[in-house]
Amino acid sequence: MKKLNAALILLLACAPAWALDKGDAPVLPDVEMIDVPTAGILDYYGFMFKTRFYSSGGVLGALNFGVLERLNLGASMTVDRLVGSDSPIKMRRPEIQVRFRFYDGGYYIPALALGYDGQGYYYDSNAKKYMEKGRGLYVTGSKEIGVPGLALHGGFNVPDFDNNYLFGFLGLNYTLEEKVAFMAEYDNLFHSDDPSRLNLGTRLYITPYFQLDLAVRGLGRSGEFSNGADRRTERIVQMRYNTSF
User: Fold this and answer.
1) What per-residue confidence (pLDDT) applies to 229?
2) 10-residue averages of pLDDT along the chain (245 residues)
């Protein structure tokens, strides 16, 4: 019962968005896809609350703020086994997010942003680390290509400064009449000892300020993590609420 109540509280936190009138307000720029960051940023005084429900009853909560004209700051935290009957519930340490958009893009050059994201996935309590590392330091670019509503995102990241491996990521999304978007990502590129991931999802724009994502991560994934745990395809549900002060 306690777990159910906690889940209801998280859902109710997003409930005000359902009451907003869609009107003619445009949807806000997407600052991220499923996992891949875009070059989009929250406006000055902007605010985003994200809730992700992931495998084994886990919940991720994140807050991000537009603290300056081009600078976003935020923090996130995961709680394993919050939803369901498994126990014990485990709260993981908070991680920070920073993003600075240093170029708004031109006719040929995409918009560009530099950021840091420490949030990883699949936490190993024994090793005290995430089996899927956080994005770490990254640079990302975004540009509309070909037809209106079709955008390409891509960049490079260094998740671990001990190894200094350079990874890559690509994302493609198509937004249809600001009502629904179809997303595809190819993440964690270049290193076979840390396999790449194919993610697919759909984003529903319930209101201009509230989005619901339904996605699968690591499509067709197999094998094991370094701790012996199985790598499996993961289904997630994600809610994002954007507003401003």
Assistant:
1) 83
2) 41 38 58 95 93 92 94 96 88 95 93 96 89 94 92 94 88 93 95 87 94 94 82 93 87
> What are 13's two structure tokens?
């936190």
- Output the pTM of the full model: 0.85
Residues listed for the chain: 245
How far the first Cα of the chain sits from its last, in Å, is 34
What are φ and ψ of residue 134, in 5° steps?
-65, 165
What the chain holds in terms of domains, given with CATH numbers, is 2-19+33-244 (2.40.160.40)
